[in-house]
Amino acid sequence: MAMADTDDEFLRQADPFRRELLAHCYRMLGSAHDAEDLVQETYLRAWRAYDQFEGRSSLRTWLHRIATTACLTALEQRAKRPMPTGLGGSADPADDLAERTDIHWLEPIPNGVVGSENDPATIVTERESVRLAFIAALQHLPPRQRAVLILRDVLKWRAAEVADAVGVTTTAVNSVLQRARAQLAQASPTPDGAAEPSSAEQRALLDRYASAFERKDVDALVSLFTEDVVWEMPPYVEWYSGPADVGHHLANRCPARPGGVLLLPIEANGQPGFALYLRDPEHGTYHAFTLQVLTLTAHGISHVANFLDVRLFDLFGLPLTQPAPSERVPAEEGQQLVAGSGRR
User: Fold this and answer.
1) First and final C-alpha spacing in the chain
2) Residue 240, domain member (yes or no)
3) Residues 44 and 166 in one domain
4) Residue 33 in domain
5) Domain tally, the chain
6) Taking the CB of the first residue and of the last residue of the chain, which one, N or C, has fewer CB atoms within 10 A?
7) Shared domain check, 21 and 60
8) Does 245 lie in the same domain as 149?
9) How far apart are CA 88 and CA 238, in angstroms?
């Protein structure tokens, strides 16, 4: 077969797996940007070795094996990506904040770039496997344990396939998996996302949250939280637990002002969220401030992760500035609006 034909055949066969490979690398690395780099590395390695692919496993399995190897190699030179809750106990909201730019923090990932595009059942399963609490818990595992657990419990590979992918015996896979599950249970002792509200309840809850945030109605916000709500905001190491402490932070530290906040809905890690912009009082323009990923339960909002890295806005296809509401283009017919004037 001619080289050009081989290249075309490789791209035709391999390209449908790009999204699930991105999800796999993201689970391993905790960074959407790093995951994209490793997917590119995976395809380059696979393209170079494609003439040696004998079909003894499926192409999908072969690509995931290459991706796993690439991720394990990359993790030899990289520290884990934590969330503030993984570094210590909750803080006193009256204390000063400590920004840690030396830590490579966990990153969110947009729903639309990972997983299956067609099968609804697969979409649900894959989104559950990239939920923020699960990805954060994975960061507590050593790289090889992380790989074994993902391949066995997420991708449902047989122990022999995992052994071949990570370079250990089948017996070792079972032992590593047992340790990984135990450590994961310690890092994330309660299943995330249990007892979620219905779709209608979820929309209503998000609408109330966005409206209260734009008004900076702290009492209204606190009423939406569960008793064990967690508020964290990398790159700050401080995080808060409980409605009273979160409310104190929002009232006294949060720079949002009534009428000076714009929230645009996003979907990240299989969860709802908002891109939050703050208004420049001099020019009226709204500037990117934080990406929020919310965990919703039947009893309210149990977790708000604020990612205060505006470089992440580009990942979600969002600009760093937004015009004042009077200058915004009206939503197209059929485009969903979230409560508040003109929020798409």
Assistant:
1) 51
2) yes
3) yes
4) yes
5) 2
6) N
7) yes
8) no
9) 9
User: Do 33 and 142 fall into the same domain?
Assistant: yes
Residue 105, token pair as written in the block: 């923090």
- Tell me which residue has tokens 């809750």: 85
Q: Do 271 and 114 contact (CB within 8 A), yes or no?
A: no
CATH number at residue 281: 3.10.450.50
Q: Is residue 337 part of a domain?
A: no
Shared domain check, 133 and 48: yes
pLDDT digits (tens), the chain, 344 positions? 455 566 788 888 899 999 999 999 999 999 999 999 999 999 999 999 888 887 777 899 999 999 999 999 999 988 899 999 999 999 999 999 999 999 999 999 999 888 655 555 565 566 789 999 999 999 999 999 999 999 999 999 999 999 999 999 999 999 999 999 999 988 775 554 456 788 899 999 999 999 999 999 999 999 999 999 999 999 999 999 999 999 999 999 999 999 999 999 999 999 999 999 999 988 889 999 999 999 999 999 999 999 999 999 999 999 999 997 665 554 443 333 333 333 43
Range of the domain at 207: 199-327
255 and 155 assigned to the same domain: no
